[in-house]
Amino acid sequence: MTLRPRARSRGFEALIEWALFICALLSIGTTAGIILVLAIETVAFLREVSIVAFLFGTEWTPLFATPRFGVLPLVAGTTLVSVIAMLVALPMGLLSAIYLSEYAPPRLRRVIKPVLEILAGVPTVVYGYFALLFVTPLLQRFIPGLAGFNALGPGIVMGIMILPLVSSLSEDAMQAVPRGLREGSYALGATRMQTSIRVVVPAAFSGITAACILAASRAIGETMIVAIAAGQQPRLTWNPLVPIETMTAYIVQVSLGDTPQGTIEYRTIFAVGMLLFLGTFLLNLASAWLRERFREEYG
Fold this sequence. Notes:
This protein has helices at residues 3-46, 51-56, 72-103, 106-117, 124-142, 152-175, 179-187, 192-203, 205-220, 224-229, 247-254, 264-298. It is mostly helical. It folds into two domains: 3-47; 72-298, MetI-like (MetI-like fold), CATH 1.10.3720. It is globular and about 70 Å long. The mean pLDDT is 87.
């Protein structure tokens, strides 16, 4: 009589195991399908456009009567907005992580951290209109030459959006630093600030770096903020006061349905998407490698 419940339990566990395996297989298959579609369309695009002209050209006008397919303006726009976002998110995120890890009482930490992470749950379209209708007009009061569409406003708002990512992951890395390192620092006469800056942060450096790389990857792949507030003017510039266009914003522009499928103009979104995928994929690999190194050192 006792064998039947055990047999049923084993059968149920086997069923769950197969269900989990199918879910994992579906995830892998979806990723493989995305890569396959991007690769096929990108190869078809590169048959008509030289890869050198695509990667190193300085003009991006694929929808004009005389098309140019140099992707550098889109790369420059994406890089510019992402750099501004990281300049906002890194210091604020790191300082908030230090406070939560080293200064805040446990009860206050349990309240502040979830509230801070609420920022990550706000829809990005809301951030986009916030950048366009509030941040940019506010900046124009102090910067008269700032255009209505620019890289500065979306970059600042994007930095606020990815702030919880930097703060939360960095705080987790600092919390994982052994308590003995802090106590040894205090025993040598160091203050709490000296211990935080010279002991805890260096010990959690790999985890903090992984958080920053992951946040940079998130900023590079952001779509709605730049599509709404950065403009759609691809230009090779590092001036944050003028309209620019990012890779994701261009994909949104062409994906609206006005471009016929199968044309070289339509295939440009796959070529840009493949370039964006490779960039974020390499950043995610670097972040995963740093996280593994962090776990090996302090796991």
